[in-house]
Write a structure and sequence with these properties.
elongated; 110 residues; 7 helices
Length: 110
């Protein structure tokens, strides 16, 4: 927090401990993990259930059940494969798919 204040960025925290355990920080960390590799099930599920997407447990279960019943699913059984085939998430995932190229590793490969 002191670093933010030193840079002239107003910041306030009620606690000096547990910063990385807050919902907002955990969501951003999960989003970064998904941008880096969308096939990570746990971070993707966290983002889907976060306020960013707002999926309920029931919707996540329905999405996975729909995918399991899909005839042409190939070998991938993960949440990403189910999410990209679920109509309600296609636009959201497309909007996030390009962010990975802004990561330093991608820039160094170009």
């Amino acid at each position: 927090m002191q670093i933010l204040l030193n840079e002239g960025i107003p910041a306030y925290a009620e606690s000096r401990m547990g910063y990385f355990n807050t919902l907002e920080v955990e969501t951003v960390l999960s989003m970064l993990a998904v941008i880096d590799n969308p096939m990570q099930d746990i971070p993707l599920a966290a983002v889907l259930k976060s306020p960013v997407v707002g999926m309920s447990d029931r919707e996540l279960a329905e999405m996975m059940a729909d995918y399991r019943n899909c005839a042409d699913k190939g070998q991938d059984r993960g949440i990403y494969a189910a999410a990209v085939s679920w109509e309600r998430l296609k636009a959201f995932l497309r909007s996030w798919s390009g962010f990975g190229c802004w990561l330093p590793i991608c820039l160094s490969m170009n």
